[in-house]
Structures are given as C-alpha cells and as structure tokens.
Amino acid sequence: MPDRERLVRTVTELIRIDSPTGEEDAIDAHLSARLSDLGAAVQHDAYGNLVATLPGNNGSAGEPPVMLSAHMDTVEPGRGIQPSLDANGDTLRSDGTTILGGDCKAGLAIVLEGITAAMEDGGLGRSVQVVFSRAEEGGLNGARNLDFSLINATNGMVFDGEGPVSRICVGAPAQNVVQCRITGVAAHAGLEPENGVSALLVAANILTRLPLGRIDHETTSNIGVLEGGLKRNIIPEQAFMDGELRSRDQAKLENYTSEFRRAFDQAAAMYPRAQIDLDIRNQYQAYRVLETDPALMDIARAVTAAGLAPALETTGGGSDANVFFEHGIVALPVGIGVRDFHTTRETASINEMYDAAVVCQKFIRPA
Ligand SMILES: [Zn+2]
C-alpha cells in the first residue's frame, strides 16, 4: 500500500524545487535520480522530456508497457513556494503569495508513490513507461516535441486533472490559436488625421464581428490580448491580437475558424489601406473516447478496485493527453486531488492524493 507520510514528504520536496516553465533542470535531476533508484532505465529526448522504463514481473513480456505521465513545469508565480499543511492534516497550500504547484507536483508524487508501493507489494505487474514532460503549461510544448520513437506504451494515465482521482477525462477540445498583426497608416492625430488608418480601430471592427465566449456547449473562443499604438497624438499604425478557438467537435472548430476568417476579410474590405496578417494554427487535436474503450475500462477498473466510483467527464482545456492521442496513445487525465489550478488559492488534498496513489498501484498491478 502507498505510504501517506512518504507521499507528503515527496510532494513537499517536489514543490520546494522551483520549476517554472523552461526551468525544469533541477526537478528533472531530482526525478531522474528517484526513478533510477527504483531501478528504471531513465532516458531524455532532445527536448529534455524524461522517459523512464521499468520492466514488469507478471509474465507481461511482449505486452506494451502502460504509460504513467505528469508534467514537470508549473505556472508563475511559482518561485520559493512555502507549502504547509492545514490543521486538518489534509489540505496542503502555499503561503498565499505563490501558487502551490500541486499542478503537477501532486501528479509526479502520485506516480512515484504508486510505483514504489507496487514494488514493495511484490513488484510491478506490468511494464511501466513513465513520461514526465517539460513545458506543458502554455502550449503542451514538451509533449509536442516528445520523441515518440522512445514510447511503446499504447495506453495509460495522465496525472494532471482537478479533483479526485475518480474523475476521468474522456473528452477534450481541439485548440486553434488565432493571431493577427494589423498594420494601418501612422499620421499626426492633430495635423492630418484623415491621412491615417488606425490599426486599433480596425482591430475593434474585427472584434465586434467575431463570435466570442461560450459559443455552444462544446465550443469556446476568446481574444485575450489586444496591443497597439505608440503615442496619444499618433494614429496607431500597429495592432496585435492574440486569441483562440476551442471545440470538442472538429467540424465545429473548422466552421468557426472559417467564420473567424470571414470576419477578418470583411474588416479588410472596409479598410483597404490597412494590412491584416492573420495566422490561425492548430495547437492540438480534440479527443473523445467511448465508454467501451479498453484504455478507459483499464483505468475504470483500477478506480473501482480502489473503492471509488469512476466519473467520466469532459473538459474545456487541453493537456498532454491530447498530444498523446494524436500519436495513437490513449492515456487519459485523472484527478490528482488538486483544486484552483494556476491561482495562489491552489490546494492539494493529501487524502485524495493517497487515493490516486492507490489507483496508480492498482493500475500497474492488476489483481
Ligand atoms: Zn497541469
């Protein structure tokens, strides 16, 4: 069985190692050493993602390993985090000036504890492939650059979801990033305003044409950044927009992407002297698994074996699981006992982390 005290020790150790996106070397060294001590063959790909393989002992030779994944980076403010346990002995939180980093240190700790417990209780049933990615936050860049030739797992679990481990994420949206640079014509605002074309006005015109917000139950969009202009008395020549479209339905994503393009074209027609450079790029694909999917049933079995009731959910956010899915690996996100991701109110429940470690152990060692 997992050891609660050891789990608390591990997660607080990991939280104390700063690892904002792009600065994962220290935590990577720590995790690599821990996995080597467990007997894993630890590798890194060119991007720095950690891939560790542990052989099973349950006559599983020839079967592909199962993947256990989490990510090593955190968002900001995530430096010098001081984790402490509430008087209830269960809730871990920061001092309120930083995030906790439970996303995804809780996930990393759960994987280490699940493997350790399985080894203490007679060894791994199945071969395991641990994938700890870099730069998940802000674009899944680690997973997108993962050297998939190192991976032979075809299914697994991604320990990176909110709430209890019984929450299994069976559907997630695709995301298109929408960026636009608008070049108008600069002119003195007092002397010759009629000679200028305001890039900000063009941007505003575009904004009013776009379908934004929650478009339907599985589609959202946002323009999150609008920048531009130089000085009060100059007609703004430059504007920049950064936004996104997401849908769990690929056809809808394509339809709304076309609608976005039309809105930009209409604005361009209204302002012929402005130049509009629109760039819409797919970041990751949507996924959806059926209740009968063997990879899902494998996880649900482990959740049930831990005495919990699986809750199948969909999300509005992407994760490394989206990228794994594109490469034919069905590794679904589950809860890691963490709440209020990416805020200074973030908490982790030790009880729920413990449950997740039990599920991890049951997953890699089927009875
Ligand atoms: Zn995360």
UniProtKB/TrEMBL annotation:
Annotated source species: Geodia barretti (Barrett's horny sponge)
Keyword tags: Hydrolase, Metal-binding, Metalloprotease, Protease, Zinc
PANTHER family in alphabetical order: PEPTIDASE (PTHR42994:SF2), PEPTIDASE T (PTHR42994)
The UniProt record lists the keyword Cell membrane: no
Gene Ontology biological process terms in this record: proteolysis
The protein's name in its UniProt record: Uncharacterized protein YqjE
Keyword Hydrolase among UniProt keywords: yes
Transmembrane segment boundaries: none
Family, as annotated: Belongs to the peptidase M20A family.
